[in-house]
Design brief:
Layout (H helix, E strand, L loop, with lengths): L1 H19 L8 E8 L2 E4 L2 H4 L8 E3 L3 E2 L6 E2 L6 E13 L2 E9 L5 E11 L2 E7 L7
Parallel strand pairs: 1-3, 1-6
Antiparallel strand pairs: 1-2, 4-5, 6-7, 7-8, 8-9
């Protein structure tokens, strides 16, 4: 359950970044997966029920990652494949989470995010940026 709660917090942050934020496209859908045993596993319909607004969210199994760009299979709408990967637990209330995203061959990557528990819910505080001294 805790893994799913942390993943939900990350997906909410990714939704605000890719769909609702300034880089967002109102036609774009997010296709969600969680890495289990080092393999991406599409989220279930039950997991998607956690989000009241499901318009832009899909299970990873409903989308295809193509070199020229990811799409939703049934509609052909542009998609971004988002996979919550490894979780490094810093404490019982804090984790560093690896997130993989794929929009196209040119727009893809892996980033780390900080997720903390505040009161009774998990919140993704944002990307961790390591800057080496000059």
């Amino acid at each position: 359950r805790t893994v799913d709660d942390v993943a939900e917090a990350v997906f909410r942050q990714q939704m605000s970044l890719w769909v609702e934020g300034s880089t967002g496209d109102s036609q774009t859908v997010l296709c969600l997966a969680i890495e289990r045993d080092s393999l991406p596993e599409a989220v279930s319909r039950e997991f998607l029920q956690r989000f009241k607004i499901q318009g832009p969210l899909r299970s990873r199994g409903e989308c295809d990652g193509r070199k020229e760009g990811a799409i939703e299979r049934t509609t052909g709408r542009p998609a971004i494949l988002v996979t919550v990967g490894a979780m490094k637990w810093l404490s019982g209330d804090e984790a560093e989470v690896t997130v993989h995203h794929f929009r196209s061959q040119r727009i893809s990557g892996t980033r780390s995010y900080r997720v903390v528990r505040e009161r009774s819910r998990w919140i993704c505080l944002g990307q961790i940026i390591d800057i080496a001294p000059a």
